[in-house]
Prior knowledge:
The chain has 2 domains: about 5-120, no CATH class; about 135-330, Alpha-Beta Barrel (TIM Barrel). The protein has helices at about 135-145, 150-160, 210-225, 245-255, 270-280, 295-300, 305-320, 340-350, 365-370, 380-390, and strands spanning about 5-10, 15-30, 30-35, 40-45, 50-55, 55-60, 65-70, 75, 80-85, 85-90, 90, 105-110, 115, 120, 175-180, 230, 260-265, 285-290, 325-330, 355-360, 400. Helix 4 runs parallel beside helix 5. It is α+β, with helices and mostly antiparallel strands. Strands 1, 2, 3, 4, 6, 7, 10, 11, 12 and 13 form a 10-stranded antiparallel sheet that branches. Strands 15-16-17-18-19-20 form a 6-stranded parallel sheet. Helix content is about 30%, strand content about 25%. The longest helix is centred in the middle third of the chain and has 14 residues, at about 135-145.
Amino acid sequence: MDTVKITALYADENGGIFDAPGVAAMGRSGKENIVLKKRDLILLPDDAVFMYLPGRMTLGQRNGEIIPISGQAVAAVLPKEYIRGYLPSFYKEETAVQLPSYAYTAVGLYKEQIYAAALYTDEKKKTVRNSYDIEALNVSVKKVKNALPDNRLVCWLADCALKQQEQATDLFYHRKVVTIPMSDAYNNTACLGCDLISEEIQKPLNFIPTTEEITQIGIYYFEHVKDGILNFGCGGNTDPALMAEKLAAAIGKIREKTAGHINIRTNAGCTTGIAKLADAGLDSMTVDIISAVPENYQTYFNCNYELADVVKSLIYAREKGVVITLNMLYFPGFNDNKSEALNWRKFLRKIPVDRICICDLNIDPDLFTRVMPMLDRALGTKMFFGGLKGEFSAIRIPQLFRYKNN
C-alpha cells in the first residue's frame, strides 16, 4: 500500500491537531526513524492521552526525504494493556527542555482516523477504580484511621488519596491489590530518568515505618480482603529489600494472624535482603529489569550492586518457592536489538522465572538514547517477544496482537 496514506500529525500554536498531506508518518526505533506501515498501527484507544512535545517538530517523509513539519510534535500515551512499537519521530530544537517521564508513542492519520504505533496484549493490567468521590473516600479514610489510630502509614496513604493519587485509595476501598510505598531512605539506585518519575508512581515515604505499623496494615487488610495482595514498593529508586529486617519481622507477625498474599516490587540487588524476606514467607516478587547485559544494566540503574547479585537473588528466591515476575522496562530499539535479544535468551536459560511483564519505559526518548547504547538494528517488538515466547514456553509472556483481543 502507499505509505503516504498514513500521514504525519502535528499541532499548531493553539493546540489544534492537523495532518500533513503528502508527508508519511514516521516512528523511531532507538535512534532510527522509520516510515510507519499499516501493520505497525492500531486505532488510537479511547482512553489514550494525546501529548504535545514542546520544542520539537514532527519528522515525516516526503519523496524519500525526511523533513521537519512546522508546528509542534505530538505523541500518545497509551493505557497499560498496550505496548508501543515505535517512539515518536521529531526534530529537537536547541531550546527544548527535557520531557516529563511518559511512554511516548508514535501516531499517524489513516483513513481520517488517528492510529498509534503499538500492539494489543492479552494482559489485564488495568485496575478498575470507582470514579473519584471525595465524600465516599472521606468516610472510608475515617473508618481505617479509627481502626488503626496513630499509624503513620495510614495517614500517609490517606493524605495521598485525598490529593487524588488513585493508587493510594486502594487500602480505603479494600481493593484486590494494595501497594505500600517505601521510604526514600531505602535506595540503592539512581536510575536514568527516575528523578522525573511520572505521577503513576506513588511518592516515597519521608519517614521510616516501624514493624508494628507495617504489621497493623497487613493484618487489617487481609482481615477485610481475604484473597487480597499486599504489595510493598512502587518502583523508582526505592527498594523494600533494603528494609528486610523490619519487613521480614512484619511478614512473620502477619502470617501468625492471616494467610494473605505478600509481594514486593524490587530491583533484587540486595541479595541478603531478598533471602531474609524469602525465608520469612514472601509469596512473590516483581523485579524491575531493563537489560541482561551487565554493562547496560549498570548504565541504566546506576546502582551500588551488580546484575550478578540480581541473578543470585532470583535463584535463592525461586528455591524458596517465591513466584518471580520480571518487570521488563521496554524501550523500542533497545531491548529488541539483536545483541540484547541474544543475552536475554542466555539469561532466561539460567534463571527459572515464572512470568515476564512488559512495561513501557516512561522516559524522555532523547535522554535514554543519549546515555544508553543503541547497537544492532532492532528485531521489532512483536518478533522479539514472539521469539522469547517460542523458546521459553514455561514462562508466562504476554501475547501481542495487531488486533483487539476481546
